[in-house]
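[Q] Does anyone have a clean structure-token version of this?
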Amino acid sequence: MVFSAAELATILSTLPDPAFVLTRSGRCAGIFGGRDARHPHEGGIVEGRSLGDVLTQRKTAWFLAQVEIALTTRMLQVVEYQLADTDMLAPKGEDAAPPVWFEGRIQALDFRVDGEEAVLWVATNISERHELEQRLLTQSRVDPLTGLWNRRKFDDVANQELERARRYAEPVSLLILDIDHFKAINDTHGHQTGDAVLIEIAAILRCGTRASDCVARWGGEEFAILMPETDGVEAARAADNIRAAVEVNLFACGMPVTVSVGISAFRAGADDLDDLIRRADDALYRAKAAGRNRIDLAA
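[A] Here you go.
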């Protein structure tokens, strides 16, 4: 079946997602579809105007780069991107709209538009999907009880930091903390009280560390802190400050709570992450064996 020009125009206008014809220079030569009012598209981009008329220089450059890739490769390009009020040149109202995430599908056209090579850019609003993906990603990396990073996230960050330490010859230290006699707290006051203690310990660790430190619940009553750009002496000082803060804290359970801490400093020529952990764990064992409520720095 052959459609008339009017029929084709009607079909294109009913597309739920907007399709933009963008030339190599960034001019919007046409817009089709976008009928799904639940998902607004790039509202500032209108037919006949250039991207640079409505978007910031930085965002315009990004769009033009994607157009160039599609024209050069002649292959379908699929990208995800965010558009926020701060990406627009138009004055912002008092009630700023939340950022919107899109999936762009970009395909080079086989004909020129007003003398220029051009692409068809179909923009699909994926904000709901993106929010769900980010929420699931966070859940996979965060300990649900304490809100600290979990072991998986810690390992990812630690491996990156150790690689950076090797490259730039910077110090890195690891602290492993264990709550002393935690079983007695659970046995005496119940697991809900034990959970409350874990949450309070996590709060103390947040206050006693820097934004650059990676603080994680290691598992059970153990916690780990990776401290970039920190040598063993500095890490031992920080560990003892944390130990002292726990010792004087008035916990909701009404029992005194203390921690023991093992510390290891990264040896670039000898350690990988497993070695760093093993040495800190050995130091923790020595701190426990020496009477608890103390720190031990691995040699």
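[Q] Thanks! Anything notable?
[A] The longest helix spans residues 151-168.
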